[in-house]
Design brief:
By secondary structure, the chain is an all-alpha fold. Helices cover about 75% and strands about 0% of the residues.
Length: about 170
């Protein structure tokens, strides 16, 4: 049962966040809450020490404050800020640099592509999500980049190591 939990909850949440953001330009609050509440369970199942759990929780809180500030200045949407914080619980400080580099790189490429597509003479596609994405009045679904970066960081995490039976150092 722990194998199933450790190998599915986080990846499925990241995939759902990315798909939801590109389709509706929203990341459900319930998804971010599920991700945050599932972290302590995953930490215990992977035999993470209490000091490491505390570090991850502190890192998640710091990410929440950063995300809130970015949201307040209009740099990201509220769902993106909450997803960043919930993901930070899982990846902790050790996974932060790869996560942020991948999210920033993918987000930048995605923004350039969307801006380019919006400036072309694009007819109405007939698909609600595509028309919303191509509209000049909407932002960029940054949850896609955050979700992919989360999957990238998770591939090298203690949770997968624990799931396949390698003890956490």
């Amino acid at each position: 049962m722990s194998y199933l939990f450790l190998t599915t909850v986080f990846p499925l949440c990241m995939i759902f966040a990315a798909v939801s953001d590109i389709m509706t330009m929203t990341i459900p609050n319930r998804l971010c809450l599920l991700l945050a509440l599932a972290f302590p369970v995953a930490a215990l199942l992977s035999n993470m020490s209490t000091s490491d759990i505390a570090i991850h929780l502190g890192f998640g809180l710091a990410a929440f404050l950063l995300g809130f500030a970015m949201f307040a200045f209009g740099l990201v949407g509220g769902g993106d800020a909450k997803l960043l914080a919930a993901t930070a619980f899982w990846i902790g400080p050790a996974g932060a640099l790869p996560y942020l580099l991948v999210a920033t790189g993918l987000g930048g490429l995605m923004a350039i592509g969307i801006i380019y597509a919006r400036n072309m003479a694009v007819p109405i596609t007939g698909y609600v999500f595509a028309d919303r994405l191509l509209s000049q009045n909407t932002g960029v679904p940054y949850g896609v980049a955050l979700g992919i970066a989360g999957l990238y960081s998770y591939a090298d995490s203690v949770y997968l190591t624990a799931a396949i039976g390698i003890p956490f150092p």
